[in-house]
Write a structure and sequence with these properties.
single chain; 6-stranded parallel β-sheet; 15 strands; 42% helix; elongated
């Protein structure tokens, strides 16, 4: 495979890349204002908003276009100086699933183009689209505005279908085709990890020269180990959230859907009860999140599963956490579990580690980057509940080993920050703008009557 480039690494070079003044960020199917862990809101929402804030701090204005889903919000919301979220009317405010949104892309695109038409010519220097639906809009907008398109997929249909959870619905052919089109048309493709970059190149025939790896970050001010004695920190966090003061807590944070595989954790506790009933009776599994995707078909499925397996007394369900409650949940846990079948990165894993909590994760996708195996947590091959039960049985009673992993988790997370991510993206943006200008100059030099072959 051709050499991959890292946006952060390339920034250290001597060449001064042009810097955009204003960026149009496209997020069709989910707003960065939505609460992560519900509906379609997740790590991508966090990514978009955090990056926009860091870019604005670097004097780059960001306007985020998203579909209007509520009449309670004004057409434009300023979330931070230099960051505006524009709600574009496209279809009914409620009742549309992500799978139904392709039918509203024409209306959404019209709203985006009209917003730009009301500005002076050349208002936006670049478009950054997130997820394939946004990429379709960005493809048209870049042709209309004459600016480069940078695209981040976040998830890829071919990868998801290759690693499908049992009972989950495969991604439709229309999405696969749409992703292939966006990959072909984007000026730059931003991958969260080298694994995702290889998927773009091997599965979607992306040009390696247009693929850049820029790893996501974490808010190291918000997610950090709390000062003071570890036992007191845990006790305070558990009291705050109403969790048992004694015993072990293993937490899952995220959308409740087959892709995220919270059922693996519940099955693992059931397997642990067969293996070591005394230890299992000391474990509380916390499932924090709301139903999403195909999980909406049976929102109570996890509760029913826990009851069927006889471990309902060991499982607690919490709604998505906001504010300081989310860091408190990470600190309250002895381990955070991320058993997903696929993750383009896994921000939950990074947030937990930044709080000093080790992570047990499936060895898939970006999780092999987000978690440093045996240093900041443990990676497990596959989703066999017996394997997960064995890992829990080994780690939970091993206080010294967990303390060692906790220290490694905090150190590992410090390698990631949103400022670092924004810096890498600015390099990618600069390259895209420079290449776009060079191409325009070449076309002008050729003249309308000549054919260029560059």
């Amino acid at each position: 495979m051709a050499e991959l480039h890292t946006g952060v690494g390339r920034q250290r070079g001597a060449r001064p890349w042009p810097r955009p003044r204003r960026i149009a960020t496209l997020s069709v199917h989910t707003s960065p204002l939505h609460q992560p862990g519900t509906g379609d809101a997740g790590g991508m929402n966090v990514y978009i908003l955090e990056i926009a804030r860091r870019l604005a701090e670097a004097d780059v204005e960001v306007e985020i276009f998203t579909r209007a889903t509520s009449g309670d919000l004004p057409p434009v919301v300023e979330t931070a100086p230099g960051v505006h979220v524009r709600h574009v009317p496209a279809g009914p405010l409620e009742g549309l699933t992500k799978e139904e949104l392709p039918g509203q892309l024409c209306a959404f695109t019209a709203g985006v183009l009209r917003a730009e038409a009301a500005r002076p010519p050349g208002h936006y220097d670049l478009i950054h689209s997130h997820y394939w639906l946004s990429g379709q809009v960005g493809w048209l907008a870049k042709e209309r505005w004459g600016v480069p398109l940078v695209h981040t997929a976040h998830t890829l249909a071919k990868v998801k279908n290759a690693q499908l959870a049992a009972g989950d619905r495969p991604e439709p052919k229309a999405r696969v085709i749409g992703e292939e089109q966006v990959v072909a048309e984007a000026d730059r493709l931003v991958a969260n990890t080298t694994v995702e970059a290889r998927d773009l190149i091997d599965r979607y025939d992306a040009d390696p020269a247009r693929v850049a790896v820029v790893e996501p970050g974490v808010d190291l001010d918000r997610f950090r180990p709390a000062p003071g004695d570890r036992d007191r920190v845990v006790a305070d966090a558990r009291r705050r959230l109403g969790l048992p003061a004694t015993g072990y807590v293993v937490a899952f944070v995220g959308r409740i859907q087959p892709l995220k595989a919270p059922d693996v954790l519940i099955r693992a506790v059931a397997a642990l009860r067969e293996r070591d009933p005394g230890l299992a009776d000391e474990v509380t599994v916390v499932i924090c999140g709301g139903p999403s995707g195909s999980g909406l078909d049976r929102p109570t499925a996890l509760m029913e599963l826990a009851a069927t397996l006889g471990v309902a007394d060991r499982v607690r369900f919490l709604p998505p956490r906001t504010g300081d409650d989310l860091p408190a949940l990470y600190r309250a846990a002895d381990l955070v579990a991320v058993p997903s079948y696929n993750e383009s990165f896994g921000l939950v894993a990074l947030e937990a580690q930044a709080c000093g909590t080790p992570v047990v994760a499936a060895a898939v996708g970006g999780l092999v980057t987000a978690v440093r195996d045996q240093v900041s947590g443990v990676l497990i091959d596959g989703h066999d509940p017996a394997d997960w039960a064995r890992t829990l049985a080994r780690l939970l009673p091993a206080r010294l080993r967990r303390a060692e992993l906790a220290r490694g988790a905090a150190r590992h997370a410090r390698n990631f920050s949103w400022h670092r991510t924004a810096s890498g993206l600015l390099t990618v943006y600069g390259e895209a703008i420079a290449a776009h200008r060079s191409r325009l100059a070449s076309e002008l030099a050729c003249g309308p009557a000549m054919s260029c072959s560059w």
